[in-house]
Amino acid sequence: xxxxxxxxxxxxxxxxxxxxxxxxxxxxxxxxxxxxxxxxxxxxxxxxxxxxxxxxxxxxxxxxxxxxxxxxxxxxxxxxxxxxxxxxxxxxxxxxxxxxxxxxxxxxxxxxxxxxxxxxxxxxxxxxxxxxxxxxxxxxxxxxxxxxxxxxxxxxxxxxxxxxxxxxxxxxxxxxxxxxxxxxxxxxxxxxxxxxxxxxxxxxxxxxxxxxxxxxxxxxxxxxxxxxxxxxxxxxxxxxxxxxxxxxxxxxxxxxxx
Length: 258
Fold this sequence. Notes:
This protein has 258 residues and is an all-alpha fold. It contains 12 helices and no strands.
């Protein structure tokens, strides 16, 4: 059996199950695109967690949950007379062919950067009013900052050297310190945002995904703090009754043991 046949049979089975659930299950019958929205976001975050953990079994399961939502939205779209699952698939196929002229036409590209630049140029030709119009407003702020910078890079709005980005980070930190000294809360918030935006840009230049980097630090902090809690309990102590110096000593003990 070919892969194509396997894919077709699997998708057909999923669509059949979705049809049966939509027609017979009291819960599935009541769902709308609006009630599914938050659940979809949760499924995508669960997939992101699985990817971060490099857990292939979990990635497979979470991809299935996301795929179910795509089929669910398509079923609702068909009921509303808007589109079908086949329309969704055909739409993305057409987009991929149109956005990859170096594969499906005679355009020549030297590397992945030219591919991205062509992608943005094609989007503007398709009627996009701004190179930033494809960045979702509801993205988490760090991810959004990264996407904004990646988008504007494709039209040449980009520093030439990483040293320039580092200087910008230093400049923004200096302005933040001045804002803190002023005591003006709105100014402090603005300058703090500028520092974060500059750091995201610096991360991009040195080849680091800032969202992944921060999440790794979050997980490290959680692991270490929970070890501090365990160590304190082992020593018969309660964190709420300990001084900061005592807790810091436990923290350093945990770090040495890693």
